[in-house]
């Protein structure tokens, strides 16, 4: 379980997270929605222990991320895919995927390579194992980024706007892979996913729950169907406003959304 309890994060005078609480249980696929600047990426960075908290507490399976020793253990349980691909440019695709399992988990190279090859094949990159990141398209690079995270066999997979640097075609190819993953994982006690995305329709299809951040406050936390119900998430003007901007068709779950 990822447990976020009353988290406060400030940058200077600005309070970016203002008492955020959120629990993500094994098997869940939870999406964080919210306008630009609402604090979504900061929350992911706090869960990763990349930001110091100004209040509250975050634990991953009981490990407190504010404690450096516990954080090191917590980081073995969760893997994060970021918006920018962050691949090592001087290493092949295969090496990018095998490095952490070999160095951090100290697993044998042959075993890790076989798994990495299978992972790459599962995302349509079987022929790219020996290529370098610069030789790949953005969508391909992000698929390598996903393989690299999965190679750590994480209990929790955190995804921070993984498609926002991609064009629509590449976005579709990456979302297809994540959709497959979410479908495979859902309810089986496998990798739990916490997503930050602007892809509302995608979130609706694959999430078990949706939470909405508004100016650093988590104002709604509902099962997906309730989030899109008129008397659920859509009862909040801020959410209606957000969805109407995100979904130009103005039709969300059969409800007409007007600003
Ligand atoms: N290192 C930092 N120093 C100062 N301010 C920061 C820092 N990181 C984030 N912020 C500010 O915190 C606020 C929340 O940023 P954050 O990136 O978490 O938002 P977001 O919801 O992920 O936005 P987007 O959807 O645009 O990525 C913004 O106002 C941002 O400018």
UniProtKB/TrEMBL annotation:
Main location: membrane
Chain ranges of the ABC transporter domain: 2-240
Membrane topology: Peripheral membrane protein
Gene3D superfamilies according to UniProt: P-loop containing nucleotide triphosphate hydrolases (3.40.50.300)
InterPro entries: AAA+_ATPase, ABC_ATPase_HisP-typ, ABC_transporter-like_ATP-bd, ABC_transporter-like_CS, MetN_ABC_transporter-like, P-loop_NTPase
Annotated keywords: Amino-acid transport, ATP-binding, Cell membrane, Membrane, Nucleotide-binding, Transport
Keyword Transport in annotation: yes
Subcellular location: Cell membrane
Designated name of the protein: Amino acid ABC transporter ATP-binding protein (PAAT family)
């Amino acid at each position: 379980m990822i447990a976020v309890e009353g988290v406060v994060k400030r940058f200077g005078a600005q309070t970016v997270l203002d008492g955020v609480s959120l629990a993500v249980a094994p098997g869940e696929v939870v999406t964080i929605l919210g306008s630009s600047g609402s604090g979504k990426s900061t929350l992911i960075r706090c869960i990763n222990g990349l930001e110091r908290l100004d209040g509250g507490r975050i634990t991953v399976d009981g490990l407190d991320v504010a404690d450096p020793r516990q954080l090191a253990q917590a980081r073995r349980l969760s893997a994060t895919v970021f918006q920018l691909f962050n691949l090592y440019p001087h290493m092949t695709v295969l090496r990018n995927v095998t490095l952490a399992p070999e160095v951090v988990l100290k697993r044998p190279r042959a075993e890790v390579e076989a798994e990495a090859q299978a992972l790459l094949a599962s995302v349509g990159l079987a022929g790219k194992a020996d290529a370098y990141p610069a030789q790949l398209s953005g969508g391909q690079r992000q698929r390598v980024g996903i393989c690299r995270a999965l190679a750590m066999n994480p209990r929790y997979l955190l995804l921070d706007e993984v498609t926002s640097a991609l064009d629509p075609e590449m976005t579709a190819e990456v979302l297809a892979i994540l959709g497959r993953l979410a479908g495979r994982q859902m309810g089986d006690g496998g990798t739990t996913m916490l997503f930050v995305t602007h892809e509302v329709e995608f979130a609706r299809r694959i999430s078990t729950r949706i939470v909405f951040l508004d100016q650093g406050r988590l104002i709604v936390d509902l099962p997906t169907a309730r989030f899109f119900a008129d008397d659920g998430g859509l009862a909040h003007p801020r959410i209606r406003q957000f969805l109407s901007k995100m979904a130009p068709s103005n039709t969300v779950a059969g409800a007409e959304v007007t600003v």
